Amino acid sequence: MVVVHEGWPYGGVGAEIADRVQRLAFDALDAPILRVATLDVPMPYSATLEQACIPQASRVVEAVRRVVARGHA
User: Fold this and answer.
1) How do residues 15-29 score in pLDDT, each as one tens digit?
2) CATH numbers and ranges of domains, the chain
3) Taking the model in full, what pTM does it have?
4) Residues 46-59 as b or e (16 or more Cβ within 10 Å = b)
5) Three-class SS of residue 43?
């Protein structure tokens, strides 16, 4: 399972969702939950740097590939 959200990686909504699913459905999971979130850095004012901080398709694809690889190992 991959949780994607535009928030901080720790203490945010996505982190809470991942925590609850991991605790309540642990036995049903084939692999640990991965989170793709805003990078854990102060949000920059530059639009280009801001786009680099928020979740991008390439980071989501990488996380999904890692989860799929773990599930089939």
Assistant:
1) 899 999 999 998 888
2) 2-71 (3.40.50.920)
3) 0.75
4) eeeeeeebebeeee
5) coil
